């Protein structure tokens, strides 16, 4: 079957389309004939090599979320999965391929009304946004800033905060046009990447959901209200500087909290419950599904080039067929 591998860490050109044997499901796994593959910021980090310490190595087929039809199951695995249209999390990789393996606990049936392409903009990101806000102990009436809001995690965090009764939902983004799109999903204030640019925005927030991290993260601790919580759900700009702790302690009298959040710490049954509810909401049009562009699997390099050039709002979806 056709797949995309990381031939060499670095830029998008390190990705290569190759022919590999189709994978075979083991016990507790299904094999999915892939229709749609979600391309996210984490795939760019994987390709670059910056996640090598976490097991994302050269030679890996990247991609962690796909949707399609189950065509086989491992031994002692419920055969009623066969023929079902599903969304599936493929783990560390394996997603950029015509066929992909997933553990049954990470497979969710697609409801009528939710396309395969739509599901791969939501399945991974929606859970991160939901549980990231929960990790931040967000409650109705509080103000929220989403930093790096133009990706699928950010878009869903904005929408869920607004739906959850936030008193204000500010976003950071690099363009006014993106700001307008973010207003459509619930943003009330649009800031530039430094957190400035709207004099009517609250001076500080109860909760910051940060997809970016990187060298400027400590500046955003100053944008927390007393008892404010900043939760880093991503690190698109790399790790924060080593003096992050100093910046936190400099705000000692504000009783601030800094936390990281990974969906890996959410029990699989809870992830499934939230995903299933979010898929139903999306099928009814109650959750936004932002597909930037659908491209053939053969164009994986182009998809990553577009991410690198900062062109992507929401998600690019790759399609094998
Ligand atoms: N917590 C978890 O369990 C979990 C799960 C999956 C992925 N992740 C993490 O989530 C991140 C990817 O999320 P995503 O796919 O939603 O994001 P994304 O689409 O890669 O990026 C979101 C936005 O961030 C802004 N941005 C990019 N580089 C920036 C920089 N250097 N400084 C400031 N802003 C920048 C860009 O918007 P503008 O140009 O408009 O500013 C971009 O559109 C990765 O770090 C990944 O590891 C976490």
Automatic annotation (TrEMBL):
Superkingdom of the organism of origin: Bacteria
InterPro entries linked: ADH-like_C, ADH-like_N, ER, GroES-like_sf, NAD(P)-bd_dom_sf, Zinc-ADH_QOR/CCCR
Assigned keywords, A-Z: NADP
Keyword 4Fe-4S in record: no
Pfam families (UniProt xref): ADH_N (PF08240), ADH_zinc_N (PF00107)
GO MF annotation terms: oxidoreductase activity
Limits of the Enoyl reductase (ER) domain: 10-318
Name of this protein: NADPH:quinone reductase
Species in which this protein is naturally found: Kribbella sindirgiensis
């Amino acid at each position: 079957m056709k797949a995309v591998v990381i031939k060499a860490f670095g830029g998008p050109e390190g990705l290569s389309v190759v022919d590999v044997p189709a994978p075979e499901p083991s016990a507790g796994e299904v094999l999915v004939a892939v229709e749609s593959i979600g391309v996210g910021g984490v795939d760019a980090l994987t390709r670059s090599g910056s996640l090598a310490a976490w097991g994302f190595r050269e030679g890996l087929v990247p991609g962690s979320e796909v949707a399609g039809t189950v065509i086989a199951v491992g031994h002692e695995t419920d055969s009623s999965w066969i023929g079902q249209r599903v969304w599936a999390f493929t783990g560390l990789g394996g997603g950029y391929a015509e066929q992909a393996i997933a553990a049954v606990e990470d497979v969710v049936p697609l409801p009528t009304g939710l396309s395969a392409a739509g599901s791969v903009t939501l399945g991974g990101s929606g859970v991160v946004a939901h549980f990231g806000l929960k990790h931040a102990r967000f409650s109705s009436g509080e103000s929220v800033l989403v930093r790096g809001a133009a990706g699928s995690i950010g878009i869903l965090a904005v929408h869920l905060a607004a739906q959850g009764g936030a008193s204000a939902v500010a976003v950071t983004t690099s363009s006014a046009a993106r700001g307008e799109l973010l207003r459509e999903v619930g943003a009330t204030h649009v800031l530039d990447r430094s957190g400035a640019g709207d004099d009517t925005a609250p001076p500080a927030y109860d909760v910051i959901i940060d997809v970016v991290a990187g060298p400027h993260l400590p500046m955003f601790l100053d944008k927390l209200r007393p008892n404010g919580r900043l939760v880093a759900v991503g690190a698109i700009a790399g790790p924060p500087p080593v003096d992050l702790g100093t910046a936190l302690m400099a705000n000692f009298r504000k009783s601030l909290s800094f936390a990281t959040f990974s969906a890996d710490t959410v029990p699989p049954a809870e992830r499934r419950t939230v995903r299933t509810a979010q898929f139903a909401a999306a099928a009814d049009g109650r959750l936004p599904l932002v597909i930037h562009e659908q491209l053939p699997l053969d164009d994986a390099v182009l998809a990553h080039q577009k991410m690198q050039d900062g062109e992507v709002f929401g998600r690019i979806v790759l399609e094998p067929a």
